[in-house]
Amino acid sequence: xxxLVLSMQKQKKYIFSLIGYLLVFSIIYFMLDYLSGGYLPMxxxxxxYLVVINVLLNIAMSFISALMFNFSTAQVSLxxxxxxxxxxxxxxxxxxxxxxxxxxxxxxxxGVIGISFGIYVLPLHNLPYKILGLVIxxxxxxxxxxxxxxxxCKI
Length: 155
Description:
It is a single chain. By secondary structure, this protein is mainly alpha-helical. The protein has one domain (8-150). Helix content is 76%, strand content 0%. It contains seven helices and no strands.
């Protein structure tokens, strides 16, 4: 079944939706970088390599998220039911808001639930948390691929 879902990704409909999702998620991830201080402080504190790593991680996370949404859409069109793993990419975006998003908002939010000033000391301009988001997305993509492969087609 996974090979069928993968072959469907070559259709014009799925290519356009992949590009659309990629743009939406890229805007979100780059906006989060901007809200957490932007790229100039990264360059001043650690050099250009940190900016390059952040941009590459943004693109990779956006692509994986878009691919997961496309896989879910293709599976739904084949089986008339989807898997919940398509929502894990949305969870990754939420993780971004809670870890390297708007610092002043998150300090207040985390203070309400009992974690005081958790965002204040994030190292490398939040790079470890972005890597954690990439790992979660990658694992979710693997799980989704396995679940798609086990799904049964209605045909």
